[in-house]
Amino acid sequence: xxETQYQKPLPAISxxxxxxxxxxxxxxxxxxxxxxxxxxxYPPAPLCPDCWAxxxxxxQLSGRGRVNSxxxxxxxxxxxxxxxxxxxxxxxxxxxxxxLLTNLVDIPNDQIRAGLRVEITFxxxxxxITLAKFRPIEIRRS
Length: 142
Ligand SMILES: [Zn+2]
Prior knowledge:
The protein is mostly beta strands. The chain has one helix at 18-25; strands spanning 30-34, 40-41, 56-60, 64-73, 87-94, 99-102, 117-124, 130-136. It folds into 2 domains: 14-61, no CATH class; 62-137, CATH 2.40.50. The chain is built from 1 helix and 8 strands; from the N terminus they run αββββββββ. A hairpin with a 4-residue loop joins strand 5 (87-94) and strand 6.
């Protein structure tokens, strides 16, 4: 592709979510973990959604989870997606609990299944933004 500019919508980076995006850039998945009750949550928030404690630590996660649900888009709502139709949007439940909205890669859309084991892969889309995508974990079949 000769495109020099990324055509899809980009996330708005704030002081609150910057550690999340900085971690992705470094090939790590980090989310906030409550210092009081241990809950790990997403999306970034200034306080624990469970116990409302305001003390938390950005912890590195395994980057593994499973597909909870997904949709396949056959219509483009943003010009940047025109060339990729049909494309999937999936909700991945991480092993640590939180759910992320993402795209699944390295798998045909008609082979996506609920419960599919996936792992994170990183896609640099601009010099500042790296997106978290997920791909199937290779399973040895006997
Ligand atoms: Zn908590």
